[in-house]
Amino acid sequence: MNQYTEFKEIIDGSIEPEKITNLRTLHLPVRSSTGPANRYVRITGVANDPIDPPWETIGGGPLSFHRGLFIIIVPQEEIEPSDLILGSCVSAGLAQLERDEAVSPADFGIAIDEVSSLTMSSTGHIAIVLKIGYKGDCWMPAISFAADILVYRPSLDNVKQPPVQGSEYVGPGLYSYGLEWEPSEYVVVTMTKRSK
Amino acid sequence: METLTLDAGSNPPTGVASPSKIALFVGNPPRELLIFSGVAIPEWDSKSEFDWEKVVVRLPGTSTEVFQWTSTVSIASITNTDSDFIFAANESWIQVGGDGRLELHVPIGVKGDTSLFSRFSYHVEVLSDPVVSKVSGTIRWNESWGEPTEAAIQGHFSMFKVDAGTWIQIPGASPQFTALAFTNSTSKPVRSSGIWAVSYIIEKVPLGIQLQIIPDLHKSVWNGSPGNPIFTPSRSVTLTPSEPMKVGVDFDMSFQLPPH
Lengths: 196, 260
Description:
The complex is a heterodimer. Chain A is mainly beta. Chain A has strands spanning about 10, 20-30, 30, 40-50, 65-75, 85-100, 105-120, 125-135, 140-150, 170, 175. In chain A, the strands form three sheets. Chain A has a four-stranded mixed sheet, with no helix packed on it. Chain A has a four-stranded antiparallel sheet with strand order 2-4-9-6, with no helix packed on it. A two-stranded antiparallel sheet of chain A has the order 10-11. In chain A, a hairpin with a 2-residue loop joins strand 10 and strand 11. By secondary structure, chain B is mainly beta. Chain B is about 0% helix and about 60% strand. Chain B contains one helix and 22 strands. The longest helix of chain B has 4 residues, at about 150-155. Chains A and B meet through strand 3, strand 6, strand 7 and strand 9 of A and strand 2, strand 3, strand 6, strand 10 and strand 11 of B. Strand 3 (about 30) of chain A pairs antiparallel with strand 2 (about 15-25) of chain B.
């Protein structure tokens, strides 16, 4: 049973870029030993969510652990919508932890339990989904994250596009369909009359 | 100090949530960069004093003794019941275990009455030298030529056999191609922007010999052009002890149709 259903916090950097701070990225051309990936992207940053969560009123009440999703949407389009994500490694940790002891029970807890997924939206924004929890009057106003992503981008390859479906490659830049040239290709023969 | 061993590479993982790994070739000559991430679950509780435990996370990868690494760990899940507390994960390091598996070592400390250090996240990068001689690359084709069968897309069958060999001239006969190394195992095909792509790796490729790399398509996993596949450009490689790996030995596949 999926227990991470009590809340969903969305830190959408594509709408509010100021919510993602310390954002750094780098891109490298690479090859992979496990698939046709040709691009590596690394993204690091801090997702900020300085809310006062409803620790008393949701789920099982003030003495229980509340579990839900924390979704980080990276502001910039680090990869193109046509890119294919072939693998990723993502880690997240506490960058800031707050606890108010004045009114809450003495017990508290804070948890980043696991990285649920890394996906790409139709506009090319990376979305990282974390499964998190908290207990008592405490919260994680900032979460640091790092993501390594392997991508296949066909435009980085030099794949020849046959001018006519079914045409045959006969040499660099040259195609023939059977014994005929593609209609858009033609040879100009210049004939000169040889003087006697 | 007590030691707790967790395993990110077992199936299912033992004491690790969302373990991940990616592998890529970088540099020239190519070296392999392995990247690991996950959330380790030590569930270490304080016995009221500042108590330490060493957590060893066995990673799903191997390396030779000589390699470079970086690692970072972060506190991910803690609880406390009304006391002063300390949670610590001050350092981490990578070493190779007795069986060649990479290991992440993390001493963690916790103090409180009671305090529970439930989880920490980790992110590790390991850069190693090639272990065996390899030739790798990608075979690509335009989707207008055809597509793999569903069984190939699911990874149940490989699409290509790729040979590394030489042409041997036999007196009085046509030259014959002899494969000195090959692979029958290629990656699952993927498609993006109308282009299909499959990667391959040939291991234990002999050094010091010029070798032709020749792919061949398994027609039983192909739904497309009935002609004979053509792989271009023609590729040859020579591996040496100082350069035992070549990546990016790529091919474009098209098809030969009978003239009309």
